[in-house]
Amino acid sequence: MSDIDLSDRKKQILYQAVEDYIENASPITSGAMVQKSETTLSSATLRNELNALEQMGYLKQLHTSGGRVPTTKGYRFFVNTIKDNCRADLDGLMKIKSVFEQRTINLSELIKVVAEKISEVTDYPTIVSLGGIDKLEILSIKIIPLMTNQALMLIQTPRGLLNNTLELEQSVDEQSCIDAGRVLTNKFAKMTIGEMVDNIVTKHQEIIQELNEYAGFFEYVLQSLVGLTKKYAQNGVYSKGATKLLKNPEYQNVEQAKEILQLLEDKEELKNLIDDDSDDEIEFSIGDELCDERLSDCTIAKAHCKINGENIASVGIIGPKRMDYAKISGALKFIVDEFNKPDLLETSKNNKKGDQYD
């Protein structure tokens, strides 16, 4: 039976019932609904409608004589209904916006701070998985000499800096590093990082013919790029606010809470939970839909941040099925919009104006 089989009255009652339960965590009763709402329906009529909604699988009774709570199907109806009616904590979201505008930090640091701020705004554990960096376009490459036969490679992308260390056979002076960075930028700007890896051997031959002095950088750059993509694939998962779950009555059971907290410490499992090929910008997976018994009383809200159709980062929020869906939707929509703003690059350039390596 689908939602289209619900009468308008049943939809209104179900929506109110789920909304009340999200707010109060108290089982739904006809008497409580009559007291709280402005409905003209009698308690008996409401009770009959709640019985019908239970039989249709939208509500369930935990105890024979007790009130009802929403099922996964009931929450799914609610999420589909409020999909276009998001709300958000504007003050909190402005803090996230300020993080995006401070584009002087590298991309991995940006993601960590964003995870922390989202957790603060939503009051739920938040996971951010940074993937697909090979799809990021290269805007510039800079080489900065370090001590002991090392140099730092900085790759500027439209969404922040990527950095990795080059292990060299011998020390190089500052001017040589600056010139090498300019050569690399000239050869690889507007390519993606993946395209740079694929084409670096061909470009190597060009450099040998044009500027033999910098040909030796290519082997180190290639090694560094391969290491960089592996590093983000393996470690680009950040989570914040795990213990916030314990504030919710659903996780007062110690054993149940322990299972969820252990899951939140496993980066590989977290990555699998929030990374997927969905075309949806924002999606909710509720209870049984997660196909994981440990998460049967949870909802995972996910947002996918894309560039040119490629998923670059995924944001996930884990909470009880009773989470504030409208607030979570608003926060995730804000993140997706901020992440994909075309003017972020200009902000980054302005912030870094005057850098000695520009």
Q: Can you walk me through this structure?
A:
- The chain has 358 residues and is α+β, with helices and mostly antiparallel strands.
- It has three domains: 3-82, Winged helix-like DNA-binding domain superfamily/Winged helix DNA-binding domain (Arc Repressor Mutant, subunit A), CATH 1.10.10.10; 90-131 and 236-347, 2-Layer Sandwich (Beta-Lactamase); 134-234, Enolase-like, domain 1.
- 47% of the residues lie in helices and 18% in strands.
- The protein is built from 13 helices and ten strands.
- The protein has helices at residues 8-24, 30-36, 43-55, 72-82, 90-101, 107-122, 174-188, 193-210, 217-235, 254-263, 267-274, 325-339, 344-351, and strands at residues 59-61, 68-70, 126-130, 140-145, 150-157, 160-167, 237-240, 282-286, 298-307, 310-320.
- A five-stranded antiparallel β-sheet has the order 7-3-10-9-8, with helices on both faces. A three-stranded antiparallel β-sheet has the order 4-5-6. Strands 1-2 form a two-stranded antiparallel ribbon.
- Strand 5 (150-157) and strand 6 form a beta hairpin.
- Helix 5 (90-101) packs parallel to helix 12 (325-339).
- The longest helix is centred in the middle third of the chain and has 19 residues, at 217-235.
